[in-house]
Amino acid sequence: MLERLKSLRTLDLEVASRASIAVVVPLVVLVFVGRIDWAAYAAFGAMTSLYGRSEPYRLRARTVSVAAACMLASVTAGLAMSVTEAALPALVLGLVFVITAGILVASTYGLFPGTPIFFVFAYLVCAQVPAPANEVLPRLLVAVASAALAWLLTMSGWAARRLAGDRSGDLFKQLPRTPVLRPAAYRDGQVWFTILQNLVGVLIAGGLALASGIGHPYWAVVSVVAVLPPPRAAHSISRAVHRIVGTALGVMVTALVLLPGPSVWVLIVVIAISQFGAEILIGKHYGAALLFVTPLALTVAHLASPTAVPTLLVDRVVETALGGVVAVLIVLAARGAVRLGERRPA
C-alpha cells in the first residue's frame, strides 16, 4: 500500500511538471518575440498535456492526439468567430456545436475529463479576443506548436523509460487507466441527455449573464459546463458548491497577484505554479484545486485581453456563482426526472 501511494505521488509530480513546462515554454517564446497578447492560443494548445494521465503509452498517444485535435478545432472556431465579428446567434450556434461534438468525442474515446470544459473555454475566449484577419494564421500556428510540444512532453516518458531500461515502468503497471473506445456512443441516450443538460444550462446561464450586463459572460457558461457531470456520472450538488467557494477564494489569491501590476515574467511564474498546483490537487479535492485553477485562468485571460483587474475579479465571482446556481437547478431537475422514471410502472 505504501509503495502504491509513493507511485501515485510520483505520477502526480510527473504529470504536473509536464503540464507546467508545456504552458511556460510557449509563453516565454511569445515574450521574446513581443507577442504575449497571443498567450491564450499558446495556453489552450498546452492544455493538450492535461489528457492521457496514467494511460499506457499506446492508448495515451490516441487520447492525446484526439484531445489536441479537439483543442485546435475549438481555437480555430473561436478565431473564425472573432475575425468575422460574428453576431450573437452565430456565436451560440458555434457553442452548441463545440459542446455537442466535445461530449460525443469524449464519450467515444474515453477522454478524461469527460466533459467539454477545455474545448468550451478555448472557443469562448478565442471568440472574444479581437483578431485581425492577417493574424489568424500565425495565431493558429502558435496553438498548433504549443499542442505539438504538449504532445511530445506527454509522450516523453516512453522514450525516457526506454533509455532507462524501463526501470520505472512498474509505475504505469500499477496505475493503469484504460480508456474505453465506444464507437456507438452517439446511440447512447445518456450521452444525448448530458448534451441536452449542458445546452440548456449554458443557454440559461449565458442569457442571464448577457441580460445583466456582466462584462465576461463566458465565465457563467464555463461554470455550467465545469459543474455538470459527464454521462452516467453521479449528479453531485457539492461540486457546484466547491466551484463557487473555491473560485471565490481563488479570486482572492488572484487579487494578490494582479492588483500590484506585476511584470509579465511574474505572471508566467504564477501560471507555472498554478498549473502545477492544479494538476496535483484536481484529483484529490476540486475546491482546493480551484485555488490554483482560478489564478491560472484569470492570468491567461488577462494576458490575452488586458482589462481592469477589479472588474475582471468581480465578474469572475458573480458569473461563477450564476453558472453554479444554474447547474444546481439542472442537477436537481435531472434527479427529479430519474426518480419520476423509476416510479412509473413498466
TrEMBL record:
- The answer on whether this UniProt entry bears the keyword Transmembrane reads yes
Q: Where is the Integral membrane bound transporter domain?
A: 205-330
Q: Where in the cell is it found?
A: Membrane
Name the UniProt key words of this record, in alphabetical order: Membrane, Transmembrane, Transmembrane helix
> How is this protein named in the record?
FUSC family protein
Q: What is the predominant subcellular site recorded for this chain? A: membrane
Q: TM spans, by residue?
A: 21-44, 64-83, 90-111, 140-160, 199-228, 289-309, 321-338
Q: Source species, please?
A: Cryobacterium cryoconiti
Topological type in the membrane: Multi-pass membrane protein
A GO cellular component term found in this entry reads: membrane
**Ribonucleoprotein: present as a keyword of the record?**
no
Among InterPro entries, the record links this protein to: Memb_transporter_dom
